[in-house]
Structure formats: structure tokens, C-alpha cells
Amino acid sequence: MRKLTNDFGNIVADNQNSLSAGVKGPLLMQDYILLEKLAHQNRERIPERTVHAKGSAAYGEMKITADLSAYTKAKVFQKGEVTPLFLRFSTVAGEAGAADAERDVRGFAIKFYTKEGNWDLVGNNTPTFFIRDAYKFPDFIHTQKRDPRTHLRSNNAAWDFWTLCPESLHQVTILMSDRGIPASYRHMHGFGSHTYSFINDKNERFWVKFHFKTMQGIKNLTNEEAANLIAKDRESHQRDLYEAIERKEFPKWKVQLQILAEKDIEKLGFNPFDLTKIWPHKIVPLMDVGEMILNKNVDNYFNEVEQAAFSPSNIVSGIGFSPDKMLQARIFSYPDAQRYRIGTNYHLLPVNRARSEVNTYNVAGAMNFDTYKNGKAYYEPNSYNDSPKEDKSYLEPDLILEGNAQRYKPMDDDFYSQPRALFDLMNEEQKKQLFNNIASSMDGVEEAIINKALNHFEKISPAYADGVKKALNK
């Protein structure tokens, strides 16, 4: 029989009865097992993520089948390379107790444990987002969360923001379409969403977008189907993913890339780093480069899913950033959120820890359980050969920037052509769902805000506006 211990290996003689002065008490302060259990329980919940709070995850791997050496020197993208990974799915707006089958964007965050360190690709199940400047992000998220007075979610706040920020119309159209409620995490696509850099061994830069296309097929829920499902099972996506992997029905995604040479950036005709826009496939075709599979469930949800920490700041040689304003801000905000939520040494937790060699001078801070191996020097620069040094061969090529420092309003105010192209691709049934979903989401929205939305829809397409009007009985 295995003996019960406390967290430090001390054997527990009695785990049923607290230590007291006599049968009727009171309790004694020297009952350190009681104090430890109560204190630990008080700390069993770390601060909830402000977004992407409700999540599910699994382990797997990505295999590259195409020769990408002309575009990137990153080992993770060399032909034949198999990289272990951890993929966390999530809803975005809801709290940890939210239902899985709500209408919401889904997070699609991947941690690749590469031979050169961890690479985190933090995306969604949509190729676009609501805003293109992180200056608006806290305010946008406030509209998706609870009113501090009523503590209720507010359709009025959401639509007020969207109608005042028309760059959101593309993403709103996706969210309100038939794809706004995936039937499961296995039956939806994933996207890196942002534009990133690829850098090859000649130090040439390419711009790249990452796509993960489900091989299970797209499946979605209507509002009515989702409501019926939520009434029976609030953890439907978590259950589906876990049970599918336990049955060895391992979900797979086709890995595809869009790659554009740095010199060809003007071909797009708009800012390529605008997160509210896609790169048209006719201009930048999709390339099939590999396959991703999930094949192992976690052993401890809290340790692995809840404490998983992702950040786009985690990149490897051959992959870099872009001038995307949203990406630039996330490079700061994500690791800062993790330091607050989990602690300064969150990178040492097993789910977050790199599987490659790590040499750092960051050796202190709460809960640091790493082995100290820096030799004589605990600082840099230093004069000792046994201590880690910088390697300038890993510097990226110059990124040419120009302009005066100012709070620039984006030059591009075309908020309507890409939503129009998406709307025109929809069949009649999909358009009907779009109209009805928008009408449902406008319950309780002020008339003036509804009229602003209708004016925007009119600019996308008169048929778009007419369809929403009919759904609203206007």
C-alpha cells in the first residue's frame, strides 16, 4: 500500500480527524496537515485568463512533407521533421464556466517543442480579427465581458463598439455566419491569423500566414441546436475531444501556408499586416506543407491545460515577426499576463518547458526549481568560456522602416469589400442563418445602434441589409 504524505513527503498518520484539545475542541495550531490542506485549497485556483478562459487541450505532433528550405531555415519546417506539440482550444469571451457551444470565436493556440526551443503560434479558428490596433483591445474585450453595474453580458455594448469600429465587419460576418458555433474543436479550421516572417539561410525574408484545415470536415451548429446541446451538456467540446482521442480517433489537420516574397508585398493592394483582412488565395495561393495530429490526452487538466502559457514572443530561428500592430502588442501582453497569472517562472512548468537546451541568467524569482549551471558568471557579458554567450549569427535581416512617430490613423478605410466577398460566397441557406443570427444577437440593442449597423450592412450589400431588416421584422 502506498502511504499518504503531504507535499513534502511527510507521512500522514490520520487524514480523517483534525488535532484538537479534547473531543469537542478547540483545534490546535500545531496541526500543520490541517493548515496545509486549507491553505492549499485557498490557492487552488489561479487568476482566470481575461480572455480564452475556457479551454481544452491535447498533445500531438506536426510532420512536414514539403521542401521549405528556400523560405525558412527553421528546423521545425524542414522536410521530414516531426515536432511534438501541445494544442489548446478555447472560447474567447466566456468565463471558465461558460458553455462550450456558445457563439464565439475559438482560440487555436499551439506550442511546438522544437529542437531550437519553443515556438508558440497563438491563433483562432478565424483568419481575421475584430480590430487591427491593440490600442482598442482592452475596450473591445470589455464589450464582450460583463457590465460592471448589472454583471450581465451586453449585446448593446458589443454592437455599439462594432458599429463604431467598422473594421470589425469582416470578423462579425464570420462570427454571425453558420461557422460561428463549431460543432466541436475537431471540426473547425485553425489560423495563425497574423502575418509572420520566414527567414532562409541566405538571410532573405518572406511574409507568411499559417493555416490548419480540419481533415474531419467542417461541422457547425445552429442557434437552436446549440441551445439544446447546452441544456444537456455545457462541456460538449471538451467531452468530444477527450473521448475521440481515448477511442484513438485522432483528429488531424492539413498544414498549409501562404508565402509572399518581401518584394511582392504591393501585390495585395492593401496593408498586408492588417489583421482584419485576409490574403486572397488567388493572389497568394495556399501551399500544402504537412499534417498535424492530436494523439494524447492530458493527465492533469489543471497542471497542463490551465497552466499552459502561450505567447507569440516565443519564436525560433527562421521564424520572425511582422509590423502587424496587434501582433506587436501581443508580444508584450501575453507573457506579461502569464507572469501575473502563474508566476515569473511559469516557463519551468512541464507543459511550458522547452525540450531543447536552455541557458539563461534569469535564475531567481518565486518557485524557481531549475538547476543552476552557469559556472563562475551569473551575469553577461563576462570573461568565462563556461558561461553562455550571445551568437550574432542568429540576427535577422534588416527590416526597413520609415516614418515619423505619430498616432497614425490607418490609411485604408475599405471596411466593406472583403465582407462583401465573403457574403457573396454564401448560399441562400447560409445567408438566412447569417441574418437570423445577427437578429438574435441584437436582442436588447438600442434602435439607434441597430440603424448604424444596418447602414454598414447596406454598404457591404443591399441584400445583406435587407435580409437583416426582415429578420428583425423591420
UniProtKB/TrEMBL annotation:
GO terms for molecular function: catalase activity; heme binding; metal ion binding. Its EC number is 1.11.1.6. The active site is at 52, 124. Gene3D superfamilies: Catalase core domain. The lineage of its organism: Bacteria, Pseudomonadati, Campylobacterota, Epsilonproteobacteria, Campylobacterales. Heme binds at residue 334. Keywords: Heme, Hydrogen peroxide, Iron, Metal-binding, Oxidoreductase, Peroxidase. Belongs to the catalase family. Pfam families: Catalase (PF00199), Catalase-rel (PF06628). The keyword Acyltransferase does not apply. Its cofactor is heme. PROSITE patterns: CATALASE_1, CATALASE_3. Residues 5-388 form the Catalase core domain. This is catalase. One of its GO terms (biological process) is response to hydrogen peroxide. It catalyses: 2 H2O2 = O2 + 2 H2O. CDD domains: catalase_clade_3. It is an enzyme of class 1 (oxidoreductase). It comes from the Bacteria. The keyword Metal-binding applies. One of its GO terms (cellular component) is cytoplasm.
